[in-house]
Amino acid sequence: MVYMDNAATTKPYKSVMETYMNTGDDYYFNTASIHTKGREAARLLEAARAQVKGLIGLEEYDCIFTSGATESNNLAIQGIIEKKKRSGTTILVSEIEHPSIMNTLEAMKEEVRVKYIRTTAGGMIDLAHLEELIDEDVIFVTIMAVNNIIGSVQPIQEVARLLEGHPKAHFHVDATQAVGKIQMDYRGVDSISFSSHKFHGIKGIGALLSRDGGKLSPIIYGGGHEYGKRSGTVNLPGAVAMARAMRISGEAMKENTARLSRYNEQVQDKVRNLKSIHIHPGGVPHILNISFIGAQGEVVVNALGKRGIMVSTTSACASKLRKLNETLSAIGSSKEKIEGSIRISFGNMTAQAEVDQLCDALGAVYEEIKEVLE
Ligand code: PMP
């Protein structure tokens, strides 16, 4: 099996699995227990927290461990808006956010006024439009670091500078596709969210780093864990394993970026000159979005699957929602390009031989379906 769907999730590093197992075995105690072992577990949790903050470069921020980016995004949006809604009601959001942002805002539409920041054809937010939209009623701005469908990298520092003059507006960044993959400067951002399983950690753990976690209403109430912002017995093995996965990914980042860029180029070279193939604008090396114009992305995904290669379709936003992908629509892609699109995503474990196999398979699938292509 050749796994090329790393933007969906990644295989955990072996050593991370070991860390998870060993921590679960040796420190199964509740970090909230006041006995000696509970305190030891709590110290380990604080060490993992400090490591995560340090590796992101936001040592002075609060770090709240969650179950993953979906929960972190919900906590940031609901938790901050609840606190700020008396001072304004406007929310600015890019058009290409993940459903965990879009659907949370949709659920709050009675309470807030959501305005969408336009996207350029290259997949970048339109900064001039953001400048037009920002006013004194804005309490929350949310823009992802790296888009999960095409891989475009958003100008986070430029937005942070633009928002300097608007201190009331909380700036949230969904950094799920960036952390552990590309170096980014998050200074000036008020909160960032991510999931461990996207950078070869395990599933079920993530974090929200917030400039001032104290100004956040909880969305999960209970025994007061995580500074009262996220109750429930803390997933200590997951947090320790996440810190480790983050460290390993960070140490190997430069080498992986160069290697994955070569893979990305190789696949592009393979299909670039074929008729009825469109390569969507990208950004990060690990995500590549290609359209087979005239075909259904699902057909291509299945044809590659028969050859043992796992990729994603982007024709539907999340395959369950059955609507044209929002990111591709926002960048002005045609219906045919959207319907025929697939997402190939590399991970730190992707090997050259697998990319060669993918290229051969893409060639074979193209021959198989070229009659239907426009
Ligand atoms: N944001 C982005 C940009 C993502 O790619 C994902 C995962 N598809 C999420 C949020 C949600 O992550 P999780 O499913 O781990 O909660």
Automatic annotation (TrEMBL):
Checking Pfam families in the record gives: Aminotran_5 (PF00266)
Look up keyword Protease and say if it applies. Answer: no
UniProt keyword list: Pyridoxal phosphate
Q: Which InterPro entries match?
A: Aminotrans_V_dom, Cysteine_dSase, PyrdxlP-dep_Trfase, PyrdxlP-dep_Trfase_major, PyrdxlP-dep_Trfase_small
Which cofactors does the annotated protein need, by name? Answer: pyridoxal 5'-phosphate
Leader sequence segment: none
- Keyword Phosphoprotein assigned to the entry: answer is no
Q: Which SUPFAM superfamilies match?
A: PLP-dependent transferases (SSF53383)
Domain Aminotransferase class V: residue ranges: 2-358
Listed name of the protein: Cysteine desulfurase family protein
Species of origin reads: Salinicoccus jeotgali
